[in-house]
């Protein structure tokens, strides 16, 4: 995922590299850094043309990382909801956006934390519900966290709690 330039610890590190590449006139590498980190192409063009001073800010870097990781993981259904929640929280919380960008923090790790909670907290589904669903299994368990719990798990994962 971060094969060519490695994982950056902050938006500042991305901008430092972009500035060095800009000063060297290596615009193709700026485009490659941006692509690898999910920075929109229009930001790259504005940066290269001198219309903006930095390639990205905290939010752009965080959302880019999330988008890049999500493209690799291909989350479905409830996991897509969790990803959208995380992106929305980054838009509202600058500290969370900063934490998302940290090395070692990943969408895969966040989803794993949610899955761990899910397996540890499975509850038996009532037999009448199983019957109404047309499921023939003798016992069904389910452990998907409610949104409030998922929000806490996501925040705790990225904020280090």
Keyword list:
2 domains; 9 helices; 161 residues; two-stranded antiparallel ribbon
Describe the structure.
The chain is an all-alpha fold. The chain folds into two domains: 1-56, no CATH class; 62-161, no CATH class. The chain has helices spanning 11-23, 27-36, 41-48, 58-73, 78-92, 94-100, 107-120, 127-132, 147-159; strands at residues 123-124, 141-142. The protein has a two-stranded antiparallel sheet. Helix 1 runs antiparallel to helix 2 and helix 4 (58-73) packs antiparallel against helix 5. The chain starts with 10 loop residues before the first helix and ends with a helix.
As for the number of domains, it is 2
State the end-to-end CA separation: 26 Å
Strand order of the largest sheet: 1-2
> What is the helix tally?
9
């Amino acid at each position: 995922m971060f094969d060519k330039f490695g994982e950056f610890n902050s938006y500042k590190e991305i901008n430092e590299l972009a500035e060095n590449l800009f000063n060297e006139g290596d615009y193709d590498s700026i485009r490659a850094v941006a692509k690898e980190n999910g920075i929109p192409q229009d930001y790259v063009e504005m940066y290269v043309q001198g219309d903006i001073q930095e390639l990205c800010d905290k939010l752009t870097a965080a959302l880019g990382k999330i988008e890049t990781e999500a493209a690799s993981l291909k989350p479905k259904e409830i996991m897509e909801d969790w990803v959208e929640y995380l992106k929305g929280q980054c838009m509202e919380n600058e500290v969370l956006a900063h934490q998302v960008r940290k090395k070692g923090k990943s969408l895969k790790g966040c989803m794993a934390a949610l899955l761990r909670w899910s397996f540890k907290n499975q509850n038996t589904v009532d037999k009448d519900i199983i019957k109404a669903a047309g499921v023939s299994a003798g016992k069904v368990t389910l452990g998907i966290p409610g949104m409030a719990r998922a929000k806490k798990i996501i925040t705790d994962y990225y904020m280090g709690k």
